[in-house]
Design goal:
Distance between the termini: 65 Å
Number of helices: 14
Shape: elongated
Strand order of the largest sheet: 1-2-3-4-5-6-7-8-9-10-11-12-13-14-15-16
Largest sheet: 16 strands, antiparallel, barrel
Radius of gyration: 39 Å
Length: about 600
Amino acid sequence: MTAGLPGTGIGGMFYLLSALATPLWEAYQRVRRRRSRGWRPVAGQTTIAGAILAGVWATGWLLGLALSASQRFVPAAAAPHPGRLLPLLALLFSIGTLAVVLLGVELLRLWVRRRPEREITIDRKQRRRALVAGERRSRILPLVLGAVVAAHARPAAAQGANLATGHLGRADSAFTAGDKRAAEREYAAVLAADPWNSHATYRLAQLRRQDPRLALRLFRRYVALEPSDPWGYMALAEMLARTGRYGESLRCYDDALRLAPRERDAVIGRARTLARARRAGAAIAAYKGWLAARPTDAEARHELAAAQVAAAPAIAPLFGGSHDSDGNATLRLGGTAELGASGPTRLGLRATREQVRDGVTTIGLDELTLRAGARAGGALQIDAEGGATRVDAAGGAAATLTPTGQLRARWRDPMGGPAVDLRARRNVIDASPLLVMNRVVRTEIGAIVELPVASRLKLRGIGRTAALSSSFDMNHRTTFAGVAAVAVTPSLEVSGQIHEIRYSRPSSAGYFAPRLIQIAQAGSYIELETARSLVLAFDLGVGVQRVAQQGAAVGPWRRALRLYSLVAVPLAPGRELRLELEGDDSGVATESATTAQWRYISMQLSLRFALP
């Protein structure tokens, strides 16, 4: 951008400083290999600034000569008092400098600027006669003010356009070079100078995808500015799908297809959104319709196969077990089966056979559960299980059948806002033969509420209450916890956690039931996914705990450790090997604990494969 000639006030001083710094800025732009306007405007601005400074120096030099010559004609007795001399000289120098600079700048304005076009709607001779005769004297001041405003309006508008153009060029260069931060800054500057610039609006929306609210607002703005561009609707639809607003996303894809019926990105994007919404049947139909006309599209054919696998029925045999510090061990065999689903609801069945032993006693359990999962839109997910657990006869007691089940509802704001996780469950505690023979059953309800308080900081509140029934007594357990979690990267989260657990009374059913348990831990959660869809997840916790027995004071602090890990390995389309590993050294994190120093480790391995 080449600025116009400066004024004679403070703005002129800023102009001189910026003009003299222009060569340094141009050199910096060339070192960073950014787009620039070249050395010609730089040389022009530097020459103008140098000429102004030379004029100021010449004015001061001439004023100095005038003051020296005036002393010859002014008597010495008439010399002003020394206390007034310096202020008088400063005043004269300032007035003279401003007068010379004003005269020089205004003359340069007349020479540099183009002359305005001649007015053809007003007769100059008549206007001159009216002024000489004294007519319309009251209009002289408004005419002068109007002329001043008109003289400055056009250069200001041109300067604003040049400013936006300069920022846009630098923004595009930074975007091409992959300098995301510089591109965001320059595109924002373009929109500050020109809010209707559709190109800058679209690019800034692309760069701010990590902020769903801002990205959606910018994409909607672009669609309003360019309603005939199908790519705007597609970009908006993709962002809506990422936030789980699948209905709006599909409507935007429909708008794009009305403008560009054969555009691949619109057809495939719409099919991907259907697959994300678990509308597998509609997604498969969309992929097949595209491939019917373009059978060589390998990517679409691959995505069609993935959608068919997701909708196909599947089975998953599983094997697992656990071992604790008291010598108790469990061994579980079973499997799950899922029915085919073309919509967002999926039905399944789970059956397992488990043996629990302690080196002396062995007892078996059979579990059969019906399962259902549904996603009501993109924000709410509901999972339900219902069935029964049969415990073998042992120790003179007959076999029993206990109803079991689980209901879980998860809601998360698609825009990255709050989240709520509600859960209710009923199950048999099977960590040891003593717990199973005493028919210890847990009935629990709980909730987790998550609130984002900053861009990366989230607060979670956890509350649970459980009724523990057995052949001997009824007990109650309450849990309260607070978590402050910081997302360091998209795949890494660190947190600080405080848990407090209380039991209403002691129990002789085989589990540890102190009056109070307090745990403080630092945790981290890591989830990684490779290019080949290998998933690794780790949930680690390191801290301390202390326990207060029933009717006793709180004891000393001791270590508290926990670990959960998941490894999912895709073996082939529709086949996945999954390994889960869990360990706990806190001794009080579960009703299975028998003492404050109790530890355990568990493992489960499953292989899921879709049926043709």
